[in-house]
Amino acid sequence: MSLREHALSLFRSAVGTVRPAPMLKRVVKLQGGRCPQLLVKGQAFPVRRDLYLVGFGKAVLGMAVAAEEILGDHLIRGIINVPLGIQESLQKKKGGGMLLKPHSKIQVIEGAKNNLPDPEALKGAAAIQELAEGLTADDLLLVLISGGGSALLPAPIPPILLEEKEKLTKTLASRGAAIQELNIVRKTLSLLKGGGLAQLAYPAQVVSLILSDVIGDPLDIIASGPTAASSHSIQDCLQILAKYSLLHSLPKSVETVLSSSPIKPTAPENYSHVCNIIIGSNTLALEEATRQAEGLGYTALILSAAICGKVSRIATLYCQLIRLACLGFAGLGEGPLGDEVRGNLLQLAAELEIPGLNLAEFLQALRGLEPERPVCILAGGETVVQLQGSGKGGRNQELALRVGLGLHRARAIEVGGLAGRCEIVFLSGGTDGQDGPTEAAGAFCSPELVDEALQEGLDAEAFLSNNDSYTFFSQFQGGRHLLVTGLTGTNVMDIQVILIRGAERS
């Protein structure tokens, strides 16, 4: 198998281990009898009378399929909000295991085209709100949450209109706001986010099963925390709006809501009827990819499951790591050049402030690699693209193209042993199978990509200046460098795979 085939295999194995249905079945059981109980990771929740289900996110369709199978006749009714077109996509892929059976008790509502709130998502949110408000102390509400849940649970606080909230979100994203910042603003302006759904469901028991798509798995940030006590105040929202120069150009409706919002968030003790449980994450996906890589003969290292920051800076980090690994293959890792690259990496890591990243420890592990064995570096998280042009793409495709350009520049001047000494493949993909408003999940690159593209009249730098990575990859070699998986039915952020081996092995 080629490095490209290996990279694709590792990505698929990582995604496969966080597929919603088998993942949920591993952790959820229903114990029947006279006093039935819902068991989740060893925790028991009594089913006193009726059991209801709601869900929202890119992975909840598969989660709902498994949940309905487990709950059987105990389930009275369910409503889930899922991305537009996901059922049709899964039908085409023959994804029967992630489709509800005919006459299911669970109603499916599709919305949030291109992962943005829309009228259909608003209808679904209203239906979920109505169900929650009708529950009693004897009911149990099972809530399924995954990435994409924020866009699928839009219920702006009146008098804010959905269009006004959507415009504000788009503006924040275009100015480079991180997903955490977007979610803080969303939940401040929402009825159901920031713990709102849990409060509406009171006094029913609420059990949330969460597939995390946020770095660090913070309960109050994933899908904007509809069942978690918020750790953010109105002041946090105002600071974010000020940071991106939006505080003085807000619609009057938003100003009205912000001026009347409580200064302090709801106290945690008001969530005693709620239990939030993480059942899947980026870390689990990377651990599975590590096992698979080692089985293929690689020395596998996980850099971080919390990669974040601007795509341009993260691309530089990956290029420098590849450069250092190639120096090691060339026997130059302990010389002045290796010391220089290590210093650059440590400085860059300090600037990026990636949570929990111990780069010094990682570089030490990189130093101990066996030169005869290929290396696999795995990472995950979610980067940010600051829009400068009007092209089409996504953060993974832009990251791959920027890494390709960086490797090209290093190769062109034969710095770091890239030219003729190492074979390199870089892959970046979204685990949900959709990167931005495109049908691609991400893209592959190598040090040869830019030169080969120039031979076809494609200038990578020009495409990047217009944020047009998808058009570049679509036109280059018939699109063979695009990572196209279709919607996967899951979502645990993005995964990067770096494979390096000595050129003599190619």
- Class per helix and strand makeup: alpha/beta
Residue stretches low in confidence (pLDDT < 50, at least 5 long) are none
User: Between the first and last Cα atoms, what is the distance in angstroms?
Assistant: 10 Å
Strand residues, percent: 15-25%
Work out the count of structural domains: 3
Largest sheet: 6 strands, parallel
Number of helices: 18
Name the CATH architecture of the largest domain: 3-Layer(aba) Sandwich
| The CATH superfamily title of the largest domain | MOFRL domain
Q: Largest sheet, order of strands side by side?
A: 6-5-4-7-8-9
Q: What is the top-level CATH class of the largest domain? A: Alpha Beta
Q: What can be said about this structure in brief?
A:
The chain has 506 residues and is of the alpha/beta class.
Give a written overview of the molecule:
With 506 residues, the protein is α/β, with parallel strands linked by helices. It has three domains: 32-152 and 195-218 and 266-280, 3-Layer(aba) Sandwich (Rossmann fold), CATH 3.40.50.10180; 156-189 and 231-264, no CATH class; 283-505, 3-Layer(aba) Sandwich (glycerate kinase, domain 1). It contains 18 helices and 15 strands. The strands form three sheets. It has a six-stranded parallel beta sheet with strand order 6-5-4-7-8-9, with helices on both faces. Helix 4 links the parallel strand 5 (75-83) and strand 6. It is globular and about 70 Å long. It starts with a helix and ends with a strand.
